[in-house]
Amino acid sequence: MANLSITTAWNETVEFVRREAGLVLPIPFLLMALPGALMQILMQPESPTQPPEAGLWMLILPVGILGSFVGSIAITWLALRPGSSVGESLQVGIRRFFMLFVAYLLIMIAFVIVMVPLVMLFAGSAMTSADPLAIIGSAILLFLIIIVIALAIAPRLMMMVPVASAENVGPIAILTRSWELTTGHYWKLLGFVILFAVGAIVVSMVVAIFFGILVAIPAGPPEPRSTSLIVVTIISALIQSVITALLVTVIARIYHQLSGGSPEKVFA
């Protein structure tokens, strides 16, 4: 079992993103955060009580999904092979995204197979109960079960993107290889996932509130389809790009350790 130092991986990540920001950050912004921001802007209804109408955002959705896979693989390639060009990393992303997509699709299918009986069980229990508190309790319990399942498997599947980027293997091998690499490191990886998620949520909220107030002073409150909402959404996309770049890079550097990568200081 390979040794794992989250601290080392994080220090390498900060150094890499700081040094290569001009190359790395445009990838998550253009391929991942910007499509999401455009979808959010285009989905805004005239009234908050109205559901989003069908429109251009439906065409952006598959572009955003494709961009997420390609962008994640590309950033990982750059983080594992410092000195590579953005063009080369994007080519790798385009070549390898389908295998990663199928691997995630298999996970989704397995999750649905597990969840359908649970949902039917809880739905049947809720329908036979006239007590609103019992219905709410069933919904909360089902939500907690989903959270537990997600936390149980998330650390074991963290290496899927690096495996897809660095190893020429198929969807099943991506899953099994990620499971193999993370064996013996579950609790350390779970702690990292929770800490990073909490930190990212806090930072995103603080930045969104700060810039929301800053933009609202000259442009008014961020109401649906307003200029202030567009500005705040784009700023949020920029922050999300930084968070995404950090997360993908640190996972790549963790993979470097778990896969027995050479110990030379590639970020000297």
| Structure class | mainly alpha
Q: Helix and strand succession?
A: HHHHHHHHHH
Rg on CA atoms, Å: 21 Å
Q: What is the number of E strands? A: 0
Distance between the termini: 26 Å
Mean pLDDT: 86
Outline the low-pLDDT stretches. none
Instruction: Please indicate the percent range of residues in DSSP E strands (runs of 2 or more).
Output: under 5%
* Biggest sheet record: none
Number of helical stretches of at least 4 residues: 10
Query: What is the 3D shape?
Result: globular
How would you classify the quaternary structure?
A: single chain
Textual characterization of the structure:
- With 268 residues, the chain is an all-alpha fold.
- The chain is built from 10 helices and no strands.
- It is globular and about 55 Å long.
- The relative contact order is 0.16.
